[in-house]
Amino acid sequence: MKYTFEELPQAISVLHEKVDCIKDLLLENRSQNSQRPRDDLLTIRQASKFLSLSVPTLYTKVSRKEIPVNKRGKRLYFSTVELSEWVRSGRKKTTEEIYSPTNGVPPPT
Questions:
Q1: Cα 68 vs. chain centroid, distance in angstroms?
Q2: Which residues belong to any copy of the Helix-turn-helix domain (predicted)?
Q3: Given Cys at both, which of 26, 46, 84, 106 links 42, Cβ 3.0 to 4.6 Å?
Q4: Residue 49 belongs to what H/E stretch?
Q5: For the chain, which residues make up each domain, given as ranges?
């Protein structure tokens, strides 16, 4: 597009508005992505480091179907989100939680 000298201020104003709109969209996208956990796929070695377990221990857990895993051909892949949920699912209740009135379990005497 060709602009005359008189049209330049209006064209710059329109460009400025569009750049501001793009900036707002990028900031909104960044905030949405930061709220969503990343779901990377890990190899067996990466998963062992992620979980602080040895590779043989991880293979044992896979063979016993104790841990979430994806298999493609001979390769194993682990989802970081699924591994985090798996670790959290093993949470033990505190004594206070066990003996709370809502559970109906009386404290030991």
A1: 15
A2: 41-90
A3: 46
A4: helix 44-51
A5: 41-88
